[in-house]
Amino acid sequence: MLAAAAYPNAPAESVRLFDEAIGLELRQSKPDVDCIVEQLTIAGEFTRARALAAKAPTDWQKDELLVTIVDGIAGHGQIVNAAAVARTISNSDDRASAYDTILAQGAGHL
């Protein structure tokens, strides 16, 4: 269990999802960071997802990952936190997409 060793205080379900995603990626010919970030956001592990997105090699890849994270945060009902992450997106089209997601998700939580 890779995540259990790296994050000994992490919730068991988060560790399981993280390890599942990592295992899936290692079995594929080309690792897909998008899948890992998505699994982390589903598990509510937004800090880890943002840390992984920060390591993206290009700004446009980082922005796309941040949009995924915003969707996950808003989906958990944390609209203010989602808006804070959306403000860090450098590309205006991606930022607009993130704000659209926040509005759609936020309306569902009212």
Architecture overview:
There is one protein chain. The chain is mainly alpha-helical and 110 residues long. The mean pLDDT is 81. It is globular and about 35 Å long. The chain contains 7 helices and no strands. The protein has helices spanning 2-6, 12-27, 33-42, 46-54, 59-75, 79-86, 92-108.
| Main CATH class | Mainly Alpha
State the assembly state of the protein chains: single chain
Q: In the residues, how many domains can be counted? A: 1
Q: Just name the CATH architecture.
A: Alpha Horseshoe
Distance between the termini: 38 Å
Number of strands: 0
- Helix-strand pattern: HHHHHHH
Backbone CA Rg: 14 Å
The class by helix and strand makeup works out as: mainly alpha
Biggest sheet overview:
none
List the total number of helices.
Answer: 7
Stated plainly, the CATH topology is called Serine Threonine Protein Phosphatase 5, Tetratricopeptide repeat
Approximate shape = globular
What is the percent of helical residues? over 70%
- Taking pLDDT < 50 over at least 5 consecutive residues as the criterion, the unreliable ranges are none
| Average pLDDT metric | 81
Assess the beta-strand content as a share of residues: under 5%
SSE inventory with pairings:
Layout: H1 2-6, H2 12-27, H3 33-42, H4 46-54, H5 59-75, H6 79-86, H7 92-108
Summarize the structure.
This protein is mostly helical and 110 residues long. The protein is 75% helix and 0% strand. It is globular.
What attributes does this structure have?
7 helices, mainly alpha
